[in-house]
Amino acid sequence: MKKNQQPKKMDLYEYEEKYVNKQNYKNVKTFIYLILTALGILVAVTLVDFSYKSYQLNQYLGYGVIAISVLVFIFFYLVPCCKLMNVKSFEIDVSRHNVKKAIKHNKSLRKELAEKFVDFNKNVENGSWYSSEKMDAIEYALLSKDDELIKTALTDLYQTDVKKQGSKLVFNTAKDVAIGTALSQNATLDTLVVATANLKMIKDIVFLYGFRPTYPRLLKIYGKVMTNSLLAMGVANFNAGTSIANAVGGFFKGIPLLGEVVATAIDCSVQGMANGVATTIIGFQTIEYLKKEYNLQNVLDKVDLGNYDESVKNITSKLLESLNDKQQKTKQDKVA
After folding, report:
1. Neighbours of 326 (CB within 10 A)
2. Cα separation, 216 vs 327, whole angstroms
């Protein structure tokens, strides 16, 4: 048995078979824009409904709410969507035609991510999310211009400080959504809070990691946001607390008003918890996609391309020889 034997490297065909999502990216992008359009319509409708109700109460209040609604739509819907779509992603769904280009792109993106982490840590006020040891390692890797060192330092940062901040971000967003929707007791406001908070959370997670998921995963995430928003509307319209209170109503019969108070409290907690849990799920799903795609681009770097390149050269060489022989034979036939 040979000592220190290196494990066999995965070749490109094995990588394609195991990891590559063979999807039509043009169709995926079309579906993303359709979901974003539907989500935008949902947000716009809830804002219009809220503005109209405010206008019915008071004309000037209505004008004020309309102005605020326009700002909400721009900054809490359009801006997060545009920013998300413009963030770079790793190229992991590759084929033999673009694998070298993908590896080069991923190497460049890793360097860009490392530079952004360093820049953020130095220049953003209250931006000291990362330990000095991790930042020193990334700075050293950048100065040495060593891609393996950059990759190692980034991986360490993602598995520790970034992971911690991502969990905190998801928890804080879920808590805000739970409290906000529990207090509102309004289907329109609940839908608006969930949709905009989910989009902002995804944008913040993506900016925390520095890259976005590839289009197939992004489609799933946006689909979840749409589902969560509609779920919030459904939960707000379903008086679960009242049903529960009625089921145990006999217990509260002798205590005036307490039954209604308990029902309202249960309604609030049910709505808040449902929306908070849904937000938590989508937040951690986004993080899992990003972690998976970061790991996959590492795997892609270790794929053995030598056999493929050698095979292409051999086949090309044989084809040229065959063509030359054919041409020589044709010339000899003509001379004869």
Report:
1. 10
2. 49
Q: Please choose, from the candidates 37, 66, 46, 32, the residue with its C-alpha nearest in 3D space to the C-alpha of residue 232.
A: 46
Place of tokens 């509102």: 184
pLDDT at 253 (0 to 100): 42
**In the block, residue with structure tokens 């529960």:** 244
Token pair in block for residue 165: 């901040």
Q: How many CB atoms lie within 10 A of CB 100?
A: 12
pTM for the model stands at: 0.81
Where is average pLDDT lowest: 46-50, 102-106, 205-209, 271-275? 271-275
State pLDDT tens for residues 79-100: 999 999 999 999 998 877 888 8
Other CB atoms within a 10 A radius of the CB of residue 168 amount to 12
CA distance 150 to 226: 37
- The Cα–Cα gap between 330 and 336 comes to 10
Residues 6+ apart with CB under 8 A from 272: 177, 178, 179, 181, 182, 183
Structure tokens at 266: 């249960």
Residue 130 pLDDT class (50, 70, 90 cuts): confident
Residue 291 in 3-state DSSP? helix
Distance, in Å, from the CA atom of 184 to the CA atom of 46, rounded to the nearest integer, reads 14
Q: Tell me how far CA of residue 306 lies from CA of 5, 67, 106, 107, 313, in angstroms.
A: 19, 61, 19, 19, 11
- Mean pLDDT on 8-37: 81
Contact between 16 and 308 under an 8 Å Cβ cutoff? The reply is no
Query: Are 134 and 160 a contacting pair, CB within 8 Å?
Result: yes
Rounded Cα gap, residues 54 and 188, in angstroms: 13
